[in-house]
Prior knowledge:
Layout: E1 2-6, E2 9-12, E3 16-21, H1 22-25, H2 29-40, E4 44-47, E5 54-58, E6 62-65, H3 69-76, E7 91-93
Parallel strand pairs: 4-6
Antiparallel strand pairs: 1-2, 3-5, 3-7, 5-6
Amino acid sequence: MYIHIGKETVVLDREIMGIFDLDTSTVGKVTKEYLNHAQRENLLQESFDNIPLAFVVCNERVVLSGISPATLKKRVDPGFVGQDKREGGSVLYG
């Protein structure tokens, strides 16, 4: 199934490896390094109008999305009710 993750960006649900909240997950040094590496390798795609709220790790790219991570999670897993508590609530899917 195709999932809309921002602006005109859609991905297959089976390509999504993780959905992360930018507010809570970019505090760590490793996550910042990962996103910087993705940008240097031209693997980072921007898909937001105003402020990025989440980043979605896919098989071959990382997408910054303006859609809230909880909404993205609901699109991937319609039965989703609350936030996954792994990694201090940073990981919403994966």
